DNA sequence: GAAATATGAATGAACG
DNA sequence: CGTTCATTCATATTTC
């Protein structure tokens, strides 16, 4: 039994009410709420549960991004996917009669402790991954960057490149 | 002009070492490194992994832009994962130090035996819980968000916060 | 209990 | 230089 209290609350989970409000606003067409709006919304939502502007902002960002492109499998081969409409698919919640799963918008967590367990799938990332020696600090000594920051004032004109061949 | 698909599937992921160097330099106060510096840095970092000047430049730009985090308020959403099993109260080093969670490029886990007692006790969320009056869109009436979408211009600079205590 | 899915959060890249 | 988009990861919740 390794069950102990571990800093809970890692990810903000919108309450149904909050979700409703958020979706409603999103549906208004406001698209990308401005900072002021975010603040406003956050304040209102705060009364329905713990929330921060960051959460609201993220939510909108995710929502928008999600609306655009759903999950696509690994499509290899000339797949002519020309859809991408930007149409707000949004709430398919109530519309569906549940063969799938119940959105957390309606979940009612009881007082008990669920204690699910370990979801540590630890998604393996077989990327290139480098990983050098555990040298902590002492690599840039040959760089004059931290020696004399006041050197020149060259203008960097990188700015936005269209295609960068990495 | 547009329409450049660009096969940039994997954005450059700084290796821990690279990150360290970058942060170190950033901390030097150099602020915006000049092109020359960028080149220099890039060269050094190249020895720790694939990287381009553009990457370095972007990194600094992002770093600086995101350093201006003005977030505040609630404070939910910190996503720092602690792998420590006993310490639940970690000393936050605040903005002065780097916070940085686990780099995305460090989840190698070749072993495969992570018996971490991550028994999420289902974060105690005594918030306002779900289950509340069926009034869904009756709360934001005082919000002008859904009334006049075309009000001001975008101005959000949240993007993401570095870390905030709760 | 683990896998599959959903979604919030982090960050690199692009755009203005 | 500020802001937003896109991609990916981490964690939560649901399902098997």
TrEMBL record, chains A, B:
It is found in: Nucleus. Residues 65-130 are annotated as: Disordered. GO terms for cellular component: nucleus. Residues 115-124 have a biased composition (Polar residues). GO terms for molecular function: DNA binding; DNA-binding transcription factor activity. Residues 7-71 bind DNA. Keywords: Developmental protein, DNA-binding, Homeobox, Nucleus, Transcription, Transcription regulation. Residues 5-70 form the Homeobox domain. GO terms for biological process: system development. Belongs to the WUS homeobox family. This is Homeobox domain-containing protein. The lineage of its organism: Eukaryota, Viridiplantae, Streptophyta, Embryophyta, Tracheophyta.
């Amino acid at each position: 039994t390794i069950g102990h209290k571990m800093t809970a609350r890692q990810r903000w989970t919108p309450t149904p009410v909050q979700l409703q409000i958020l979706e409603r606003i999103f549906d208004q067409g406001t698209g990308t709420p401005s900072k002021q709006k975010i603040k406003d919304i956050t304040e209102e939502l705060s009364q329905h549960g713990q929330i921060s502007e960051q959460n609201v902002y993220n939510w909108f960002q995710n929502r928008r991004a999600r609306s655009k492109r759903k999950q696509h499998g690994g499509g290899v081969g000339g797949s002519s996917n020309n859809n991408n409409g930007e149409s707000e698919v949004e709430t398919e919640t109530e519309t569906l009669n549940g063969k799938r799963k119940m959105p957390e918008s309606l979940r009612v967590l009881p007082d008990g402790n669920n204690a699910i367990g370990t979801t540590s799938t630890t998604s393996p990332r077989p990327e290139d991954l480098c990983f050098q020696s555990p040298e902590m600090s002492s690599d840039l000594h040959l760089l004059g960057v931290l020696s004399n920051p006041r050197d020149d004032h060259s203008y960097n004109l990188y700015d936005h490149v269209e295609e960068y061949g990495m």
